[in-house]
């Protein structure tokens, strides 16, 4: 680097630009993840509605998930979690801006609805990472 560039504050400019790029990448990631949560919730809602249409047919829901898993390229457990997301979090569209699909996958492991709601709220309020949510879920599961 020339003395001229150094004198003109090149290092500060470089640091500012790197900071802008880092922030933009983070915001892009959050936007994509928010869209993923919304999409999965909508998928869960559509699957649930389809199951309800044929609730009198034994094993229809299971067969539906099996076929969708193959045709969509999803694993059955993921599709079950997507359906669970819709049923357990009817207001996910307001929470989804704060929590990612990774957060929800961990939260869905809590069977106690009161505890799940509690951990969900804490995670959203305190901006927990997925790993923090996972640890709290495991801690609560060990207690029971």
Overview of the structural elements:
- There is one protein chain.
- The chain is mainly alpha-helical and 144 residues long.
- It is built from eight helices and no strands.
- The mean pLDDT is 91.
User: What is the H/E order?
Assistant: HHHHHHHH
Structural class: mainly alpha
Regions with little confidence, pLDDT below 50 for 5+ residues? none
Query: Sheet bearing the most strands, described?
Result: none
Extended strand count: 0
Strand content: under 5%
The radius of gyration over CA amounts to 21 Å
Amino-to-carboxy terminus distance:
62 Å
Mean pLDDT score: 91
Net shape: elongated
* Number of contiguous helices: 8
Amount of helix: over 70%
Short structural description:
The protein is mostly helical and 144 residues long. 78% of the residues lie in helices and 0% in strands.
Question: What keyword list fits this structure?
Answer:
8 helices; elongated; mainly alpha; 144 residues
Topology:
Elements: H1 3-7, H2 10-53, H3 60-72, H4 76-88, H5 92-95, H6 101-107, H7 113-125, H8 130-143
Helix pairs in contact: 2-3, 2-4, 6-8, 7-8
């Amino acid at each position: 680097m020339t003395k001229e560039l150094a004198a003109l504050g090149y290092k500060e400019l470089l640091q500012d630009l790197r900071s802008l790029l880092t922030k933009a990448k983070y915001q892009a990631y959050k936007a994509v993840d928010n869209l993923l949560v919304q999409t999965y919730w909508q998928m869960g809602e559509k699957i649930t509605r389809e199951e309800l249409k044929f609730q009198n047919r034994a094993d229809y829901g299971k067969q539906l998930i099996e076929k969708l898993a193959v045709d969509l390229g999803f694993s059955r457990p993921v599709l079950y979690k997507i359906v669970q997301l819709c049923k357990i979090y009817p207001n996910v569209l307001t929470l989804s801006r704060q929590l990612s699909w990774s957060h929800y996958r961990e939260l869905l492991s809590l069977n106690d609805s009161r505890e799940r709601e509690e951990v969900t709220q804490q995670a959203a309020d305190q901006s927990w990472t997925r790993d923090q949510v996972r640890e709290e879920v495991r801690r609560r599961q060990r207690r029971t």
